[in-house]
Design brief:
This protein is α+β, with helices and mostly antiparallel strands and about 350 residues long. The chain has 2 domains: about 1-165, no CATH class; about 240-350, 2-Layer Sandwich (Heat Shock Protein 90), CATH 3.30.565.10. The chain is about 65% helix and about 15% strand. It has helices spanning about 1-15, 20, 25-40, 45-50, 50-80, 85-110, 120-170, 175-185, 195-210, 220-235, 265-270, 310, 315-325, and strands at about 220, 240-250, 255, 280-290, 295-300, 330-335, 340-350. The strands form 2 sheets. Strands 2-4-5-7-6 form a 5-stranded mixed β-sheet, with helices on one face. Strands 1-3 form a two-stranded antiparallel ribbon. Strand 6 (about 330-335) and strand 7 (about 340-350) form a beta hairpin. The radius of gyration is 30 Å and the shape is elongated. The model is unreliable at about 1-20 (pLDDT under 50).
């Protein structure tokens, strides 16, 4: 047990050392070194043409190549190459290189104020520089993304170890638990159908958590059934002054999501549901599927005196962390609170 805790702590320490990339300081350092190197190679022009000419040459050349590099990495590569549009990417890359060469030649022609500049030689030189920087910066960006992906996988592994450790601490014998539930179920008088049905749903909740959530992804149908059973049990604790509605569109089926991803939002809604004696207390849960996205929303009425930090506790923080790890850049989460309502809307990209 102690070795497992040490291993978890070691991973957390080692794989958090990426603050340089977090604040984009690597971009700043790269272009600073590039500018200083080019300035060093062109320092002789200070004596021949002056500081104005020197600074204009250094800044313009590096600004143009930087713009080309960022367009290649964040526009062409992400929107064309990564989506399998290789031919469009190749044509776009050639157009980008051509534009860079012509702009750089035009600026050199204006800066040097001469018409004798060799166009073919300058074009070949600028083409070589452009190809080098485009390939080099793309390789650096892909290396960084690979490292980030590996880092995420290690974090997921670490959090899995932590979850397994907590599970070991709190584990009950499942067979004993279900046998006890079955014994109690048959001891309840058959005329008390509500109690028997509630116990059956409670048994289904436990079975889902213990046996059906071991995979990384589960069918959405199982998750919605689990939520429905949980809500049905919660209704038993609430009085008639509560209005709880569930709207699940027919197209919410035939796809997979991470298990137990939605239950913290539902638990939070019931935990902080208003308790007005004169007015209605409501929870509305909606699920839909549109344009390759699963859309989940839940709205509950709240008491005015409940502060924001009471509604965004550790449960929501944990699910936000899971979303970052499992659905990085493939989800949107919006949480809003006003005097009357607390609203959560989650969108997940799904196949």
């Amino acid at each position: 047990m102690n070795k497992l805790l040490f291993y978890i702590h070691f991973l957390n320490v080692v794989f958090e050392v990426h603050q340089l990339w977090k604040y984009k300081l690597d971009h700043f350092l790269f272009w600073l070194i590039t500018i200083l190197f080019y300035a060093f190679t062109r320092k002789h022009s200070i004596e021949t043409s002056g500081w104005t000419h020197f600074l204009a040459d250094v800044l313009s050349r590096n600004a143009l190549i930087a713009a080309a590099c960022y367009i290649n990495v964040y526009v062409l590569f992400d929107r064309q190459f990564r989506k399998g549009r290789y031919f469009v990417y190749t044509l776009s890359l050639l157009l980008l290189l051509t534009s860079y060469i012509l702009l750089q030649y035009a600026f050199d022609f204006w800066l040097n104020k001469t018409g004798k500049t060799n166009f073919l030689f300058n074009s070949y030189y600028n083409f070589s520089i452009g190809i080098f920087y485009l390939a080099f910066t793309l390789a650096l960006e892909l290396s960084k993304r690979w490292y980030h992906q590996q880092n995420l996988l290690r974090k997921i592994h670490t959090e899995k170890l932590q979850a397994e450790l907590q599970y070991l601490k709190a584990q009950l014998n499942p067979h004993f638990l279900f046998n006890s539930i079955n014994t109690i179920y048959f001891q309840i008088d058959r005329s008390n159908e509500n109690a028997r049905e509630s116990l059956r749903k409670f048994s289904d909740l436990l079975r889902y958590q213990l046996y059906e959530c071991n995979e990384d992804k589960i069918p959405i149908e199982k998750e919605t059934t689990y939520l429905q059973n949980y809500i049905d049990l919660q209704k038993l604790r609430k009085d008639n002054n509560n209005n709880i509605t569930i709207n699940i569109d027919d197209n919410v089926r035939d796809f997979y999501i991470a298990p137990l991803l939605l239950i913290p939002f539902v638990e939070n809604a019931f935990k902080h549901l208003s308790d007005n004696s004169s007015g209605a207390n409501s929870i509305q849960l909606n699920m839909d599927r549109k344009n390759g996205h699963f859309i989940f929303s839940i709205v509950n009425s709240v008491n005015d005196e409940i502060p924001n930090n009471g509604l965004t506790g550790i449960g929501l923080k944990n699910v936000k962390r899971r979303l970052d790890l499992l659905y990085e850049n493939r989800y949107k989460l919006a949480i809003q609170k006003n005097d009357k309502r607390f609203t959560v809307e989650l969108q997940l990209e799904i196949p």
